[in-house]
């Protein structure tokens, strides 16, 4: 992800924050950069930034207004969290990820704060988003598979009506469905990772879109089924099951929710947007 934006991987960032909420497209956040002498003025709002309230440095995707008759397109600026005009409001979220709403009220930055291409960085941003999406899905798989394993262990040892729950056909089928879902997304993840080597270091866009669409649809169901199989035990706060479910649910909305991923797949396949 850092390579796509030409960022030093050894740089000390407390958080890398992009203008992404439930939509895949950073333009949906409507951040603009207007020229002001030798600097740029950033204006707009990002409604939901994971880890935003604890970040000391923000990587912000904005659209630059035309300057000297030239359209600069999308750019990425590194903005200090303490910069004048920057407002950070903590937001409660389902997985307590220190999210925040960030407002840019005439925040001034110079060209030296540009990260990556100085002109239109759309290609680099797309590559970075694809890489970030792969990382997010990998975390979703880890959490969902942990919930699946916990459920398998529980139904194998929990005895009801004189036998373990796992011996009941409906329970065995449910666990099998959870395993198939985790394995299916895992195979798509492997395909997306393989495409990096086949595509000059950048993931294949269609492979990533397909991966995220499948993860959004299948993995939250896995953690929900794990809760159901645990019965009342699954709702104790001192058990990790609720943390896995919260994390999967939250990540399903980041870097493209179900609707956004359907539209993304349709676009890449040349199908109508309503598909």
Automatic annotation (TrEMBL):
Q: One biological-process term from Gene Ontology?
A: fatty acid beta-oxidation using acyl-CoA dehydrogenase
Q: Which Gene3D superfamilies match?
A: Butyryl-CoA Dehydrogenase, subunit A, domain 2, Butyryl-CoA Dehydrogenase, subunit A, domain 3
Is Cell wall biogenesis/degradation included in the keywords of this UniProt record? no
Q: Which GO terms describe its molecular function?
A: acyl-CoA dehydrogenase activity
List the PANTHER family hit by this protein, alphabetically: MEDIUM-CHAIN SPECIFIC ACYL-COA DEHYDROGENASE, MITOCHONDRIAL, MEDIUM-CHAIN SPECIFIC ACYL-COA DEHYDROGENASE, MITOCHONDRIAL-RELATED
Family under the similarity heading: Belongs to the acyl-CoA dehydrogenase family.
User: What protein name does the entry list?
Assistant: Unannotated protein
Native organism is freshwater metagenome
